[in-house]
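To assess whether ligand presence alters the predicted conformation, the chain was also submitted together with N-carbamoyl-L-aspartate. Input:
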Amino acid sequence: MANLYNNLNLIDLNDYSVSWWEKLLDRAHEIMADPSAYVESCKGKIMGTLFYEPSTRTQMSFQTAMLRLGGTIIGFDNPATSSVAKGENIKDTTKIVSGYADIMVMRHPVAGSVKAAALTADCPVINAGDGGHLHPTQTLTDLLTLKEEKGSLEGLCIGLCGDLKNGRTVHSLIKAMSCFKGTSFVLISTPELALPAYIKDVLSAGGHPYKEVSSLDDAVGMLDVLYMTRIQRERFASPEEYEKQKGHYILDKKKMAKAKESMIVLHPLPRVDEIAIEVDDDPRAMYFKQAKYGMYIRMALILTMLEENSLKVPLITGKVHNHQKCSNPLCITHKETYLPHYFRGDGTMLECEYCDERTLVE
Ligand code: NCD
């Protein structure tokens, strides 16, 4: 039986209100001021970390966050050494771990997979990245960095550069920043790696001004924040397509010289070649500090999600249409075929509850 309403889960940050995010940011600020006050806050609690895809920062910052709160961790970071290698489906693996742990963090290469896990899990589930779809805790990290370093989340001109098509951190950040007054966006990519239509819809719906450009050199001078991203090699259909896209955007000292003194550079990391090492010493380079903020916001998140009275939101708001297939070939419903096909809306266009893609009714 699907667990549509029972647990608190973090699948998409936009399932929660801006004031809920702001409480988390304030809590992280308090933790940073006095981390020693929290060393026993999660004593006796266990976090399960299920990483079906490589990770350094997300996984380790979740683990250190839990350890710094006095809790313990179980899990895997290589599905090849778990029962996944024997062909176990997501439902069974996550159902079992959610019975062992008090809270579960999951990363998976397929869009919608973490929501699929949350449907039957017995504990709260946190999305640590589902394919090219969303990455809400990276966005919380980005919001904390912006709040601490810029003083406000309003009125910022944000440039996002690189793989805007496949970069889940870009999708989550745009959805979040669209909730703040006065945000404008400059989308810097090749036409092949432009932002997907369903994220552009979020921009248009919020009435936020945005420009799509191909030159970083021309755009850098107008930005308050530059969010660099790597080209997501693992999401390309062929190595040849990746080869055509790599190396287009490299932020170096020369480009930094054209940027405002107050502009800050963010990057979710890992970097490949899109930020030259020479930029690391520039005081505007914020990416290493940003990774550290990630640990504190995850401490705040774990604490909040383990509270009995935490706000719960429904996982599914639409209905089952089992005869209807999602139009996104990279959606989890095509891989785990036992999943009910949940869609939002009615009429001729439905929105998949797992990956958010729009599908014409068959
Ligand atoms: C990002 C991710 O996994 O989406 N990394 C991270 O979590 N900090 C960005 C990336 O892999 O390019």
